[in-house]
Amino acid sequence: MSRLNQVDPTRAQGEAEALLAQVQRQVGSVPNFMRVLANSPPALAAFLGLNANLSRGSLDPKTRERIALSTAEANGCEYCVSAHTALGKKAGLSAHEISAARLASSEDAKARAALEFAQTVLERSGDVSTAELNAVRAAGYDDGEIVEIISHVALNSLTNFLGKVGQIDIDFPRVALLTKSAA
């Protein structure tokens, strides 16, 4: 059971009501994650804004989902691994590519470079070497795309932390973590 309140969209008021209605229109439902985030309308608005803006970026949906999967697995968020497994399938990732992405890998060399860079950013809190930065550039990513990779790591870490702190009830087909982290 979720440790943080899940705002009921039918009982929400003010800004939370408007934001949850927006989610309902765009997604067709209101996932539990959004219901928890609605406890702070400014936080929900910030998440929705950054997510929408990054979706208009240069990174394709498959790469964005791969980064979300690798970040969720690394951070040990079962809610987010479950959600992004479903979203990754919707974006066109095969089951094999989803499994590889969870381990920050891909058969696609360019995608693998993005995942390796994202994993390094995450594991070292952004302290990457010039060689690591040059490696992702050599794979074909420009500075704008590199900024987007970093932004996706940050956005997904936010969702992972909220998912773990809140122990949010998983409302997607459950996918177990590869290595169970401490609850």
Morphology call = globular
**Helicity, in percent?**
55-70%
Q: What percent strand?
A: under 5%
Rounded radius of gyration (Å): 16 Å
How many beta strands in the DSSP annotation? Answer: 0
Termini Cα gap: 13 Å
> Main β-sheet, in a few words?
none
Order of helices and strands: HHHHHHHHH
Number of helical elements: 9
Q: Which architecture of the largest domain does the CATH hierarchy give at level 2? A: Up-down Bundle
> Could you please say which CATH topology of the largest domain applies here?
AhpD-like
CATH class of the largest domain: Mainly Alpha
What is the assigned CATH homologous superfamily of the largest domain? AhpD-like
Mean pLDDT across residues: 96
Q: Give the structural class.
A: mainly alpha
Instruction: List the uncertain runs.
Output: none
Total number of distinct structural domains = 2
What does this structure look like?
With 183 residues, the protein is mainly α. It folds into 2 domains: 14-55, no CATH class; 61-166, AhpD-like (Up-down Bundle). The protein is built from 9 helices and no strands. The chain has helices at 14-27, 32-37, 41-55, 61-75, 78-91, 95-102, 109-123, 130-138, 143-166. Helix 4 (61-75) packs across helix 6 (95-102). The two termini are 13 Å apart. The mean pLDDT is 96.
Give the tags.
9 helices; mainly alpha; AhpD-like
Task: Please summarize what this structure is.
With 183 residues, the protein is mainly alpha-helical.
Write the layout of secondary structure elements.
Blueprint: H1 14-27, H2 32-37, H3 41-55, H4 61-75, H5 78-91, H6 95-102, H7 109-123, H8 130-138, H9 143-166
